[in-house]
UniProtKB/TrEMBL annotation:
This is Enolase C-terminal domain-like protein. It comes from Cristinia sonorae. InterPro entries: DgoD-like, Enolase-like_C_sf, Enolase-like_N, Enolase_C-like, Galactonate_deHydtase, Mandel_Rmase/mucon_lact_enz_CS, Mandelate_racemase_C, Mandelate_racemase_N_dom. The keyword Metal-binding applies. Signal peptide: none annotated. SUPFAM superfamilies: Enolase C-terminal domain-like, Enolase N-terminal domain-like. It holds the Pfam family MR_MLE_C. Keywords: Lyase, Magnesium, Metal-binding. It comes from the Eukaryota. The keyword Metal-binding applies. GO terms for biological process: amino acid catabolic process; D-galactonate catabolic process. Residues 131-233 form the Mandelate racemase/muconate lactonizing enzyme C-terminal domain. Its cofactor is Mg(2+).
Length: 405
């Protein structure tokens, strides 16, 4: 079989979009277009700057050389890694996989070696900073077809806080479990060591799917201690970038579930490698994705191929949506239709006729399996030009001291 003709990158664009997303569009001289997502909530301008450097470096390169571009993007500068540079590289990497799939007419999961499952289990976010969030959010998710949800364990919490915090968290978890839903509890790094062990112990009787970021991701030894203390699986990883960052958590046997974010960890390339790397430690994979549709589509492609995959985060009709949600920029959102807690694998084929006759997804095409409404993306980006990007809240205690968000 003859070698493929190169697909030379001619254009690399980024679009800042509500609610807090950064889409990447890569075009090649043979007319292929790939989409990626480099959303890094709270640091949008910094990632845009990092993209400027990637544009300077990679326009003129062959888009087929995904791994060569990844290596150069990661290693060719003296300083490397971290959220900003890795989010920019992630956006580019995802777009290159989309291009390669479209060029060859296959979904990305085919390029990664084929599926090991036909459906991907998903969970939805329900908030949890306030008690009223939780039950209302869980009921909505259940109606949407989810069988599992994730909630924040606590709101703002002091280094060592009142025991009433424990009781409030347990009540909220019990209320969600009473609806027949499985629930992951995200401590969000808000809880410090003294409270974390109490909180984890108090949740044990209610069997959460996992507790997430029980401590900040700078504490591998302390998280490992906690892991030996409680029976609930420990999940962590949205704030880790590349295999190197995961290494201390795996070597210390600190985590049971790895949660890399495809838009921060190094894209589809590194998420796929992380799946294999974590598997060797008997650690499950549950990619983090409270962001946009391109990141979710990229995760699903890897989830389908990873034997240790367990569940995928999916943020739908999110609380900070600012007029846009997961489906806004998609031409056909039925590719993410949830049936009894699962999304089915995109088949890589266009089937508009089937769509009309059988209400099947009309588009689950090659590459990432989604079709972006480019006109809306361009128009929205222009309309919001000059606006300040999304920022997270800042928590202070009653004494005025800073608390983790
Ligand atoms: Mg989290």
């Amino acid at each position: 079989m003859p070698a493929l003709d190169p697909s030379i990158i001619t254009k690399l664009e980024v679009f800042r979009l509500p609610p807090r997303w950064l889409f990447v569009r890569v075009e090649t001289e043979d007319g292929l277009v790939g989409w990626g997502e480099g959303t890094l909530e709270g640091h949008t301008e910094a990632v845009e700057g990092a993209f400027d450097a990637l544009r300077d470096q990679f326009v003129g390169w062959d888009a087929d050389k995904i791994q060569d571009i990844w290596q150069h993007g990661y290693r060719s500068k003296f300083y490397r890694g971290g959220p900003v540079l890795m989010s920019a590289l992630s956006g580019l990497d995802i777009a290159l996989w989309d291009i390669k799939g479209k060029k060859l007419g296959v979904p990305v999961w085919q390029l990664l070696g084929g599926k090991v499952r036909d459906r991907v289990k998903v969970y939805g976010w329900i908030g949890g900073d306030t008690p009223e969030d939780v039950v209302r959010g869980a009921e909505v998710r259940k109606e949407q077809g989810f069988t599992a949800v994730k909630m924040n364990g606590t709101g703002s919490v002091d280094w060592v806080d009142s025991p009433s915090v424990l009781g409030d968290t347990v009540d909220r978890v019990k209320a969600v479990r009473a609806l027949g839903l499985d629930v992951g509890v995200d401590f969000h790094g808000r809880v410090h060591k003294g409270m974390a062990k109490q909180l984890a112990r108090s949740l044990e009787p209610f069997s959460p799917l996992f507790i997430e970021e029980p401590l900040l991701p700078t504490q591998p030894d302390e998280i490992a201690d906690l892991s030996r203390m409680v029976s609930i699986p420990i999940a962590l990883g949205e704030r880790l970038y590349t295999r190197t960052d995961y290494r201390p958590y795996l070597e210390r046997r600190a985590i049971d579930i790895a949660q890399p974010d495809v838009a921060h960890c190094g894209g589809i390339s590194e998420l796929h490698r992380l799946a294999s790397y974590t598997e060797t430690y008997d650690v499950a994979l549950a990619p983090h994705s409270p962001i946009g549709p391109i990141a979710l589509a990229a995760c699903i492609q890897v989830d389908l191929t990873a034997p240790n995959f367990v569940i995928q985060e999916m943020s739908w009709q999110i609380h900070y949506n600012q007029g846009a949600d997961l489906f806004t920029y998609l031409k056909d959102s039925s590719v993410f239709e949830i049936q009894q807690g699962y999304i089915r694998a995109p088949n890589g084929k266009y089937s508009p006729l089937l769509s009309l006759c059988l209400s099947h997804p009309s588009y689950a095409g090659p590459g990432l399996g989604i079709e972006i409404n480019e006109e809306l993306v361009r128009e929205t980006a222009i309309r919001h030009q000059g606006e300040k990007p999304w920022r997270n809240d800042i928590f202070h205690g009653p004494d005025g001291a800073f608390r983790e968000w």
